[in-house]
Specification:
230 residues, alpha+beta, 2 domains, 5-stranded antiparallel sheet, 32% helix, 17% strand, Bifunctional DNA primase/polymerase, DNA_primase/pol_bifunc_N
Length: 230
């Protein structure tokens, strides 16, 4: 299929995804649905413009997350754990991002990579299981926790003496949000990957109460270190 770009009819062939890339993306989507019973929805993908430069399939030159955000307004309703439906959806767009709606089977605590690595090391040194953890090429880490984390994080941070999660560069992705899951590509910077992979035998998710003290401490350390560098 060709596209018309700008005022003139400029033909830009849509390049098919390499077979191995398409298979990897679909395989990951099916694993999340079949093994974890997580709902999945395809997102945008990367295309090539008339100059050969990559761009997001949404067409926005200022796209905030090229190739890694919902492709349709009704994405929440389109999310599914049906393997048949997922195969049909990715047959249409084999390079689509693998998006996991949050606030359903899990929430995600989103922190800077440095803080995430510090928190993960501290948790495991203390013998505590962190649950699934993913890293993104924009230097963020996602800690997967049980749903309902937002209110708990707000209350817990106040109890710990922190004014807000924003001051710590810590966010909770809950109901109405999503997380781009491995192996989704983020523009030219690379692909998301699992640091601690969810598996069939490791289906446990932690309560955010078990992690937030360590995550808040790590985020505070990371912000202090950044200020000292400046």
């Amino acid at each position: 299929m060709n596209e018309t770009v700008g005022a003139e009819a400029t033909y830009v062939p849509r390049q098919p995804a390499p077979p191995e890339q398409s298979e990897e993306v679909l395989s990951a989507a099916l694993r999340y649905a079949e093994e974890r019973h997580w709902e999945v929805v395809p997102g945008t993908w990367l295309e090539t413009d008339e100059t050969g430069a990559p761009r997001c399939s949404c067409g926005d030159a200022e796209c905030h997350a090229p190739g890694a955000h919902p492709a349709r307004r009704d994405w929440k309703a389109a999310a599914t754990a049906s393997a048949t439906t997922l195969r049909r959806l990715w047959a249409k767009h084999p390079r689509a991002a693998v998006l996991l709606p949050t606030g359903r089977a899990f929430d995600v605590v989103d922190v800077a990579e440095g803080a995430g690595c510090l928190a993960l090391a501290r948790l495991e040194r203390e013998g505590r299981r962190p649950g699934p953890v993913a890293a993104t090429p924009d230097r963020r880490m996602y800690f997967f926790v049980l749903p309902g984390a937002t209110a708990k994080v707000i209350d817990r941070l106040h109890a710990l003496g922190y004014a807000s999660s924003a001051s710590l560069d810590l966010a909770v992705r809950g109901e109405g949000d999503w997380a781009a899951a491995p192996p989704t590509r983020f523009g030219l910077s690379g692909s998301a990957q699992w640091v601690r992979r969810p598996t069939v035998s490791y289906a446990w998710l932690p309560d955010v109460d078990d992690l937030i003290g360590t995550l808040a401490y790590a985020c505070g350390r990371e912000r202090l270190t950044a200020r000292r560098r400046v």
